[in-house]
Amino acid sequence: MTIRDVPLRPVGREEFPRFNKHVCPPTFGGGPLDPVTPTRRIASNLLVNIDLDVPGLGKVPMWILEDPEDQQGGRVFPSKTIRTVEGDIVHARVGAKSNTHTIHWHGIEPSPMNDGVGKHSFEISGNFTYQFATNQAGTFIYHCHKNTALHFEMGLYGAFIVDLKKPDTAEAAGTPDPPYPPGGPGFVRGFNPPTHVIHYDVEALWVPDDIDTRWHELGHNASMQKCDPDDPTAARNFTGDGILNDFRQDVFVLTGEAKRPDDDTPFQKAAVHARVGQTILVRFIDAAYSVQEIRVGLPLTLVSVDGFTLGVGPTGQYNRPIEFAAGQPIRITAAMRGDAIIRPTRPGRFPVTIDFLHWISGKKLYTATTFIDITE
Amino acid sequence: MPVTRREFIRYAMVGAAAFAGGAVASRAAPWGRPTQYGAKRRLAITEAMVQMVDRSFVYHWAFEDLDNVPSAPQMPGPLLQAEEGEEMQISVTNNLPGPHGFRILGAPGEVGAGIVIPPGETREIDFEAPAGGSYMYFDHLNAPVNRVLGLHGPVIVLPARGNTPYGDPSPSVQKLFDDLGTTAHFPGEPWKAERTRIWVLNTIDPRFHEMARNGRDITASQLRDELLPRYFTINGEAGAYASHNHHTTPSGRIGQPFVIRIMNAGLADDSLHIHGNHVYLLARTDEEGNRRVEANPLFIDTFRAEAGTLMDWLLPMRRPPDIPGDERVPLRELIARELSLTLGGVPQSPIEYPMHDHNEVSQSAAGGNYPQGMVTHWEITGDIDGVDFPQSDLDEKGGRNEEYERGEGGHA
User: Fold this and answer.
1) Residue A270 domain-assigned?
2) Same domain for A20 and A153?
3) For chains A and B, what is the number of CB pairs under 8 angstroms?
4) What is the CATH number of the domain that holds A71?
5) pLDDT, mean of residues A207-226
6) Does B31 score more than 50 pLDDT?
7) How far, CA to CA in Å, does B190 sit from each of A64, B108, B196, B316?
8) What residues of chain B, 297 to 356, have a C-beta less than 8 Å from chain A?
9) In this structure, are A20 and A150 located in the same domain?
């Protein structure tokens, strides 16, 4: 029996611009396009080369986004956390210092030209000022959305936190105003009738990531398809020798702290220190190319996922916060986020483990450990 | 039994259905003839060379709809559709040299457990369509090998009554559908069954497909441990093809909600991320076939689509909530400048957003070629008052991206 072909559909000439733009976006600059008076201005430049120290292995080259207005702490990995306040109208001036780039404000939902995806808009050559509102207090992520498999892996991402306005209560008097200081204290929205506000004393940021050091030797446009506006689907335009489908983790990262696979010492940067009676807010953001299972040695309440608070507001009325028993796994994959509340009732050192599971075989690749230290 | 509700569900696949009726049509043309949507269907299990996004051909095992004229293999398999309680009569002929199976994941009874079909034989399977919801049929033998090599397809059962996709909606999901088009936060229209899209996901490693072609045994553990996908597909397509196929991409005005039925036939735990709107997670079916409508439907922008499982999303088609400005002003006025632009030869009106696997490894094809992998898009064509966005000015405003033209990277 002859084996029959199942061909791709023919692409007409009138479709060539769309097929070409899919892999070869145009450039644009300036902005904002339909301007609204901003309440907050932020700035980010990309990219900046830094080295990540991996004890016992050496330095791994990374790319990050820098805050050009912060001479001291503007160059870190993950890229510097951006904080705005719920209800802000943001003008984000982004400079492409070399090459073309975008920033996607993941989970924030503006118009396509402010969404930072080249094939649906453009890539920045020079500067562009993105305009968007941050209408939901919660945990988001920003990252470059160009040749994303590589650029996200290289470190072109950071946490984007939208803080709740400070409530007008006696408890809030004298506490810092939003944007709240990293590490706490602050306020989040939560299913906590009637005010739906939760005050936290300590804020933790857990960002699991994994690295394939082979990828960190690649060039900016590694394995990109050739632009051919006259015949964008031709076989000759495809590169076939890349490794961007082949991710072999050999470094494991938690919130910027990196370890070799055979290094099982606890991560210090993500460790949480609090006292009995305090409220801990953990924000987690998955930046890995594997599956994560987070186990916390204390009971927790998941109060928000992907920037939307469970049980609160018109869109939250269909769900409720989720209680996790101590040790019960939270399973997450790339770019999922969540906010968890922990209220320790006794002193002790409580373990936190994050298993990294291969996204296909399911095999455990590494277990990152850190801890929550509770004192009287 | 009324069948009117099921006549217009669009579903993209590569192959015969694209040419239903003998028309050598563009795949952008609707092909959902009512005669294809009966509960009585004749399928065959066969083989085919399926073309990938880089124009290479990869051997697959495939389903074929024998009632399609001309009959030909399809990737993924044909859509099976019925109304809850209706008698489904499916005949499956195995035209391959080895035994193959037919199982509907999530269905009760014999067909939910799986039926084995020896080579050259036909099995008639009669059963009552189960509770309204999403299901997937696949060859359950040597699981997950035969499924991943191409033997899978979608099943949609519409409920006999109600305004949800389910025969057994949870109270929260029922409330959500009651609120669509009737509340201030979901203005517009209720959900309609034709506002449905199906996304069948797969991971393709041609080395294993070649082994199957050569009659070599593949064990499940070998596939799980060694699979290195070279192609990542949605409805048998990837990249620009999957993104520009209206049978895959939701399209409508603000306030016209869609249900998206996601079926991961592949072997990767994908992490699907949608831009522009959060979605509600409505229902899930695990790899064993345990099906549940969510009691606690999360409002998410990214969620894991685990290998061999199903999940349904509600895309509310809200006005993207973080466009600043007066909410009473229609978008056609508020972002008039943006809508007027043409960039890279493509009008910015209507507005489009991507949906892609955020395990970005999946955005590759043939080892690179971002983003020719597991990606599609959705679009908003107009405002809630029924007025479509104006056409863009066709004068190009974007600049040439000289960086790409220099051919840096793989083609240096």
Assistant:
1) yes
2) yes
3) 378
4) 2.60.40.420
5) 95
6) no
7) 44, 30, 13, 10
8) 297-304, 307, 320-325, 331, 334-338, 341, 343-346, 348, 351-354
9) yes
Is residue A192, in this structure, part of any structural domain at all? no
Same domain, A139 and A268: no
Per-residue pLDDT at A1 = 65
Q: What is the pLDDT of residue B26?
A: 29
Which residues on neighbouring strands pair with residue A27, listed in sequence order? A123, B399
Closest Cα to residue B309, out of B264, B275, B342? B264
Residue-wise pLDDT tens digits, B332-389? 999 999 999 999 999 999 999 999 999 999 999 999 999 999 999 999 999 999 999 9
Q: Binning pLDDT at 50, 70 and 90, where does residue B406 land?
A: low
CA A201 to chain centroid, in Å, comes to 23
Examine residue A176 and state whether it is found in any structural domain, yes or no: no
Q: Are residues A27 and A152 in the same domain?
A: yes
> Residue B260 and residue B327: Cα distance in Å, rounded?
27
Residue-level pLDDT at A149:
95
Task: Report if residue A132 sits inside a domain.
Answer: yes
What is the sign of the dihedral through the CA atoms of A115, B255, B264 and A335? positive
Whether A3 and B51 lie within 8 Å, measured CB to CB: no
Q: Does B202 contact chain A (CB < 8 Å)?
A: no
For residue A293, CA distances in Å to A262, A356, A365, B129, B160 come to 19, 7, 12, 37, 39
Q: Are residues A282 and A156 in the same domain?
A: no
When CB atoms are compared, the residue of A89, A122, A362 closest to B343 is: A122
Whether a cis peptide bond, with omega within 30° of 0, leads into A185 is yes
Per-residue tokens: A40: 């907050």
Q: How far apart are CA A82 and CA A159, in angstroms?
A: 6
Q: Distance from B182 to chain A by nearest Cα, in Å?
A: 13
* Domain containing residue A266: 208-212+247-375
Report the C-alpha gap between B214 and A238 in whole angstroms. 27
Residue A109 C-beta-side C-alpha neighbours within 13 Å: 25
User: B302-305 and B299-300: which strand pairing?
Assistant: unpaired
For chain A, what is the mean pLDDT? Answer: 96
Assess contact for B377 and B243: CB atoms under 8 A. yes
Q: With beta carbons under 8 A apart, name residues in chain B contacting A7.
A: 14, 51
ipTM over 0.95: yes
